[in-house]
């Protein structure tokens, strides 16, 4: 890692095909360093700027200090293939969404204060769990899929261990990134239309989600766990002949305004701000 990385805003990109998490200065895109992780997928960050990396193969979640090179904490999600993670800004608890290593459903694993062993919770209608995000009130929203592989979306309301299944009134085929953005929950459909993948901004009310806007990610193939950073959205983009990270204006979308290349299979992106 470059010596000055700790003092800069950083873009983290998990690359499962390279067993690495690449770290770039943000927004310049200058490569600052790389973290070695067996099978990195989801990324999330806390208020200190520490970054949590989900290792699906090793069933671990490693915490790295902002700009750090070695994990300062390793959590276990035994019996699961963890995929995505999210930090609750109201309590500091960590939620990890994942699939079972057997034929049973996956779960949402909750780590109190982002430490120790988790409590695993399962929605009776959801079979696999992918990515999620907490809103400012501590409500967890996440996507996944039903036993028949159809898209699923749900909420674990703040202060509860139960689930509310939510119907999103927009056709989404493949579960991928979720990020709470003010009054809306942004959810991506990874399957590209003729313009590419699309992010939809939903207003959630009870068990219904109404699309209030959309962000076409033109030029993309299949975007993974995206990251909204103020007026930009950053998407890891992979396909049969492409592996890059693209930047678009948010929420207008359209043509990409910046591209970073050099990946094998990018999965997730996030920005960690220097403190």
Please describe what this structure looks like:
The protein is an all-beta fold. It has a single domain, classed as Neuraminidase, CATH 2.120.10.30. Helix content is 0%, strand content 52%. A five-stranded mixed β-sheet has the order 16-20-19-18-17, with no helix packed on it. Strands 21, 22, 23, 24 and 25 form a five-stranded antiparallel β-sheet that branches. The protein has a four-stranded antiparallel β-sheet with strand order 3-2-1-26, with no helix packed on it.
Annotation keywords:
single chain; 275 residues; mainly beta; Neuraminidase; five-stranded mixed beta sheet; five-stranded antiparallel beta sheet; 0% helix; globular
- How many helix segments? 0
Kindly provide the radius of gyration, computed on alpha-carbon positions and rounded to a whole number of angstroms: 17 Å
The tally of strands reads 26
Mean pLDDT: 96
CATH second-level architecture: 6 Propeller
Work out the oligomeric state of the chains in this entry: single chain
The structural class is mainly beta
- H and E string: EEEEEEEEEEEEEEEEEEEEEEEEEE
CATH fold descriptor: Neuraminidase
Helix content: under 10%
**Count of discrete structural domains:** 1
Contiguous uncertain segments of 5+ residues:
none
Tell me what portion of residues adopts beta-strand conformation: over 45%
Assign an overall shape: globular
